[in-house]
Amino acid sequence: MQHLILPVLLASLWTLCTGSADWCYQSQFTCDHECNTPDKWNHANSDCSGKQQSPINVVTRKTLPDERLTPFKFNNYDHIFRGTIKNNGHSVQVNVPHLATISGGGLPDTYKAVQFHLHWGTDGGPGSEHTIDGEQYPMELHIVHMRQEFSDLTTALSDAEGVAVLGFFYEKSKSANRKYDSMISALKSITAADANTSLSSISLAQLIPPEHNMTSFYRYKGSLTTPGCTESVIWTLFEKPIPLSHDQLKTFSDLKFKDGKRMVSTFRPVQPLNGRQVYRSGGAVILASSALLVAAITMAMGLSQPN
Ligand SMILES: *[C@@H]1O[C@H](CO)[C@@H](O)[C@H](O)[C@H]1NC(C)=O
Ligand SMILES: *[C@@H]1O[C@H](CO)[C@@H](O)[C@H](O)[C@H]1NC(C)=O
Ligand SMILES: [Zn+2]
Question: What pTM does this model have?
């Protein structure tokens, strides 16, 4: 009897002292709350140190135009549903009915929406997961889809192309984005970890730019950006950001982690590309070269002006 109890006791002490129980973001780590920060996620999930991890920094001048990256077909994105918004201890998440689908956009299949969640900074400061030419946006929306043949995300993740995530950046705007009012006012009711509340009427279409502004995007193969970091994700990053006011962005920092501390800086640092190619749709402009073009035109005009 006794020689059974001791190992069990030691094992439970071990998990207590090493804090291996849960993963966390860098912002959650303190001396009295030791948790697995992003550099240690691979201790519990070896996939987190894989060669195709997300997020990444997109260097636009190294992206390759790909004519197969045609505009997406969004189906039932305007379907209005009643949803539950939940503080899951790492983010806010809304599970969506599996009715909205995407196809086209260079995807190998039709994918259906499963859930969406966000990643943000501190009080509207830098907080996106992906960066574009080193720029970190204040927030990033992930709409997670799975290949239509699957009925749950866990199964979809066992297929190398089982999951497609649409990533949208946010930018600070002077005026509030009224299409976000219901979601942002719901945050007040779910500041505590594991709290949830209902959203009476919401659609995916209301959260994202109009369809004609979604033809410019980047594409690469990567992973989930939280443990288990499974490398089964076809990533799409749209160039056009979603506008939110500073106050709207700041509201996300009122949420709390499980330990009661402010839920801020909920992003994983960018990961090595390891030789992966990032593609861009025909519409995606290379910012650096278009700036150069403008400079060249301006100079030419200046030169041609008689004075
Ligand atoms: C929402 O919270 C209630 C308790 O307040 C709980 O019973 C319910 O299961 C939760 N729903 C979800 C989707 O987490
Ligand atoms: C958004 O669409 C409008 C109307 O087609 C267009 O004028 C504008 O340039 C687009 N913006 C971006 C960033 O795609
Ligand atoms: Zn995410």
Answer: 0.88
